[in-house]
Structures are given as structure tokens and as C-alpha cells.
Amino acid sequence: MKRTLFAAFIAATATLTGLVSKVETASASGFTWNNSWTQPTVHSKSQTGFNDAPFQQFVQAEGVAIPNSGQFKLDPNNLNLKYDHNVSVYFINEGAGYRNQLAFEATGTTNKSGLLFNDISCEGNGCVGGWGGNALKLGDGVNIGNVTAGTQLDFWLRADGLNRGDSANIFGTDTASNADKLQHAVAYAYNNYILLAFEDLYGGFQASGIDSATGRWNEGSDRDFNDVVVVLDVGEANVKALIGASVPEPSVTLSMFAVGAVSMFGLRRRRQTRTIN
Ligand SMILES: [Ca+2]
Ligand SMILES: [Ca+2]
């Protein structure tokens, strides 16, 4: 059951990624993790006013794929900003024994990169994990400053990087850059923010042993994409532009066609019926 859901999930994502990649120009290749990066100042939600509560519904219990709950799926490798914005990233949750790290890279009219969170370990009520570290509370955020129109944002997870350093696997929002050639990030638009959720284990679902293609170990992945969950504040205008630029999947096209057909009979429906399965 889980596996079937996940297969459908990946198939749908692959379709969307394939279509969007045809108009993709910016590239994140050449990224390297810089061990001299330091943790930016972490602001609590009482300082920023950010409310993490609406996003907790998308944080999955261990081993369970993210359901379709009315959020709009985006291509995590196509997070291009059409408008300037002072960008912040908020920690939502984590369900990982690993002490993960997250970095960003901006390429385009703004070019910079850096660490977002040095130790993604959750403390307090509501944590999926809670397996040591206690570095972040729900809703904690960092600011990466102004990012100008015409910039692509990419994000990189260093899996258990706090412990493993340079020997850790690094997974990006660009699936092609990942050693196991699997998707490790999903993105959704919700409430004028972008939810980004990562899988930190190498290899396919429950795969074990050495991956002969790379010599790296498969890690029995559960592919639950709850190992690092963050929200990006890139501004409402950018989120709306990203939704508008997304190529609808066949199921979405069908539902939109159905809406059109209903409208012909004089009934009004809003575009909120766009859903993805
Ligand atoms: Ca997990
Ligand atoms: Ca996982």
C-alpha cells in the first residue's frame, strides 16, 4: 500500500519534472559544501511572528508518504524568483535519527550560498523526532537576506553531516545531482509559502547493501520525506508566480477540464479544485 502510493507519487513528480526541465536554464552543478560556514542567527517564532502550526499537518509519521491534502506540488528544482524578496527559511519539523544539515545556494541575479541549519534536531512538544541534539524548536527561522528577481534557489541536505562531515551523503533539490539518482526533496505551495521536505536515507525504498553504481551503502530508506521539513518565505508574489508557471499534470488538466465543462452549464467553480494525486 505504502509502496503503491509512493510509486504513484514519484511517477507524477517525474512527469512534472520532465515537462518543466525543458524550460529550465539555471544549473546548480558545481555546488560544494563549505565546512567553514557557520550557523546564521536562529530567530524564534516569537521574534519573527511566523506560525508553523498550519504546516504541521504535512509532516508525516515515520515511514508514511506525504498525502495529497490540497497543497500545490511544485518542482523543487525550479524554485525561480520572479520578484525581489527578503527570504527566510523556517524549521517545521524533523523525523530523523541523523543530525542533518541544510544549506542553500542562490544563482542568477543574486549569487550566494551558505548554511541554513547546522544541526537539524528538534526539541519540545510536537517533534516527530526528538532523538538527541535539541538544537531547534518548531518554527525557528533564519534569514538569508534579499534575493533578487531572476534568481534560482537550490537547497542541499547533508545527511547526518554534523557527525559524518565530508563523508556524508549530500542530497539536492536537483534529483540528477544525487548519487543514487533518486528524488530527495519535494516542494509544495501552501498559504503563500513553500514547504520543502527531504528524505535523508540513500537508495530506494528499503534497499540494502552496496549500490554497485556508486559504492555507497543503501540505507534501507523509508522514503517518508519527513527527515527535514522547512518552509520558505519567498513572498506571496513569487509563490503565485511559481504556481502559475507549473505545468499541470494530466490529472490536474482533467480536473480543470471538468471544471470548464461544469462552467459551461452555468456553475461557477474556483481553481482550488486543482489537485494532484
Ligand atoms: Ca523519517
Ligand atoms: Ca526517511
How many strands appear in the DSSP assignment? 13
Q: Write down the secondary-structure element order.
A: HHEEEEEEEHEEEEEEHH
Strand content: 25-35%
Q: Specify the structural class.
A: alpha+beta
What fraction, in percent, of the residue positions are helical? Answer: 10-25%
Distance between the termini: 15 Å
Domains, number: 2
Spatial strand sequence of the major β-sheet:
1-9-10-13-3-6
Poorly predicted spans: 1-28, 250-277
Mean pLDDT: 81
Radius of gyration: 18 Å
Q: Which ions, cofactors or small ligands are bound in this entry?
A: calcium ion
Largest sheet: 6 strands, antiparallel
Count of separate DSSP helical elements: 5
**What coarse outline follows from CA principal-axis ratios?**
globular
Task: Give the topology.
Elements: H1 2-21, H2 45-48, E1 72-74, E2 79-81, E3 85-93, E4 100-108, E5 112-120, E6 141-147, E7 151-158, H3 161-164, E8 170-172, E9 185-190, E10 193-198, E11 210-211, E12 216-217, E13 228-233, H4 236-245, H5 250-264
This protein binds calcium ion (CA) (2 copies).
Describe the overall structure:
With 277 residues, the protein is an alpha+beta fold. The protein folds into 2 domains: 2-246, no CATH class; 249-277, no CATH class. 19% of the residues lie in helices and 26% in strands. The protein contains 5 helices and 13 strands. It has helices at residues 2-21, 45-48, 161-164, 236-245, 250-264, and strands spanning 72-74, 79-81, 85-93, 100-108, 112-120, 141-147, 151-158, 170-172, 185-190, 193-198, 210-211, 216-217, 228-233. A 6-stranded antiparallel beta sheet has the order 1-9-10-13-3-6, with helices on one face. Strands 2, 4, 5, 7 and 8 form a 5-stranded antiparallel beta sheet that branches. The chain has a two-stranded antiparallel ribbon with strand order 11-12. A hairpin with a 3-residue loop joins strand 4 (100-108) and strand 5. It starts with a helix and ends in a 13-residue tail after the last helix. 41% of the residues are buried. The model is unreliable at 1-28 and 250-277 (pLDDT under 50).
